[in-house]
Amino acid sequence: MLCLGIESTAHTFGVGIVALKKGKCVVLANEKDLFRTEKGGFIPAEVAKHHVEVCDVILKRALEKANVNMRDIDLISYSQSPGIGTTLEVGCNVAKSIALIFRKPLVGVNHCIAHLEIGRALCKAKDPVLLYASGANTQVIAYEGKKYRIFGETLDGGIGNYLDKFAREIGLGFPGGPKIEQLALQGKKFISLPYSVKGMDVSFGGIFTNLKQKYDTKKFTTEDLCFSLQETVFAMLIEVAERAMAHTGKKELLLGGGVACNKRLQEMATLMCKERGAKAYWPEQQFLVDNGAMIAWLGILSFKAGNRLEIKDADTNPYLRTDQIIVNWR
Ligand code: ATP
Ligand code: FE2
Fold first, then answer.
1. I need a labelling partner for 15 at 20 to 30 A (CA). Which of 125, 210, 278, 293 fits?
2. Which residue from 9, 182, 286, 289 has its CB within 8 A of the most atoms of ligand 1, so it is best to mutate?
């Protein structure tokens, strides 16, 4: 079975083509294009316009890369939730058009769960706790009783957006995460920042306000601030992830989301897991960031479990939460 998956929840427009071969996930193509700005935040209408402009090129590139044509595709999958309304609509409309023109079955999937399922398939983790740390999302998710439950999450924004905002404010450009990571490597001194874990949840707003104030005093080096920032916020994420592992008794931690590309976060995850006799996993970078392959793979799982959408019912849901989906494929 061959599935074409379309990702468009945020600034990435991606098309992935995935095959189910002998029960395994084989990625044939994973093409994408990112909307970028040098300064300022994203304007949803502009991101949507970008996705409209690149969709045909990315689609064509994915088919070429996989060396297949539309007739070979058995299923179309798209990211239905959660995300930015305008950009979700573009992906949904592209998916509906293809399904209609080429008479293919259609499924809509949840983006957060797609991060977890692609990691599970590619890393061979059986039943992990997912630490999902990306631009807009920060959640700790694990399977229990037919649902992916949220054990902890951010009380304000996603960690990546805060990293990007701070980086922009101090002139590092976008995306900020990788630049902060590089500077942090040169950091020598740990500067105490607010540590904000509330029960199973985390919050970042106060930390970043405090960080910017410290930066403005010019008493600290940018390197030390970046180093201390990473040590603080990643410790918070790892603490909440560990608590979810202790609570559920699970022995695997899976990382997902763009921020999980960070080597220091990966190292902290490995250390924590080692200390509790567990194992940390993360897929290669192209599957950590937003991508179409994960949407295609979850499409296959969902379709095989009997889920499908009529074109007239194919919609988007920007606010649907991970734990509202019935997981009937596990
Ligand atoms: P979402 O998945 O929530 O819809 P998104 O489109 O921002 O949002 P991703 O592509 O998964 O998601 O992640 C992008 C984020 O990852 C950006 O905030 C970026 O700064 C961050 N990031 C990328 N690489 C690193 C890194 N090495 N260290 C820290 N952060 C990183
Ligand atoms: Fe994501």
1. 125
2. 289
Å from CA of 254 to ligand 1 middle: 16
CA 160 to each of CA 177, 220, 270, 275: distance values in angstroms, whole numbers, following the listed order: 7, 23, 21, 27
Distance from C-alpha of 309 to C-alpha of 75, rounded to nearest angstrom: 11
3-state secondary structure string across 139-151:
EEEEEECCEEEEE
Q: Is the distance from the beta carbon of residue 7 to the nearest atom of ligand 1 less than 6 Å?
A: no
The best mutation among 36, 130, 290 to test binding of ligand 1, ranked by most ligand atoms within 8 Å of the C-beta, falls on 290
Does the C-beta of 231 come closer than 6 Å to ligand 1? no
Each domain of the chain, given as residue ranges in start order, spans 2-115+287-324, 127-285
pLDDT tens profile 231-285: 999 999 999 999 999 999 999 999 999 999 999 999 999 999 999 999 999 999 9
Return the CATH number of the domain spanning residue range 127-285.
3.30.420.40
In this structure, are strands 279-281 and 252-256 parallel, antiparallel, or unpaired?
A: parallel
Cα of 96 from ligand 1 centre, angstroms = 28
Of 222, 242, 258, 271, the closest CA to residue 111 belongs to 258
Q: Which atom of ligand 1 is nearest to the CA of 9?
A: 4
User: Would you state the CATH architecture of domain 2-115+287-324?
Assistant: 2-Layer Sandwich (3.30)
262 CB under 6 A from ligand 1?
A: yes
For 124-139, write each residue's pLDDT tens digit.
899 999 999 999 999 9
Q: Do the domains 2-115+287-324 and 127-285 sit in the same CATH topology, yes or no?
A: yes
Alpha-carbon span 197 to 181, nearest angstrom: 22
